[in-house]
Write a structure and sequence with these properties.
mainly alpha, 50s Ribosomal Protein L19e, Chain O, domain 1, Non-ribosomal Peptide Synthetase Peptidyl Carrier Protein, Chain A, two-stranded antiparallel ribbon, 7 helices, 4% strand, rod-shaped
Amino acid sequence: MASSILGVGISRVWIDPEQLDRVSTAITREDVRKLIKEGVIKAKPKREISRARWREAKSKRRKGLRKGPGSRKGRIVDEKELWMAKVRALRKLLATLKRRRIITRSTYRKLYIMVKSGAFQNKAQLKTYIKEKGLARTLP
């Protein structure tokens, strides 16, 4: 009865343990209202949402965990990752050309620096540049 008067669930009704005999004699809704007014029966406060899981996740993020591409909003692969992939591919091509003796060591060094400066967007551009400038002995 008290829960319906207070407008809360049964689990949120608090009854003063020292006044249980008075509460047990309350029969009508009016009796219960009087006990609520006196403070014998009260509504417990709502339970807040626990922040424990949030704190644990925050500490893990500080350690570098939970930061993978699946946890990110927006662009999945960032600019730096793309840059690294592109430069590594171009450098690998240059190393292959040097190993096969298609380009000289000095040409390799010049092109390596150009790759680092961002002169080429992709491998096709690099190959075209080598052909146009006549830097290769024979291009594959």
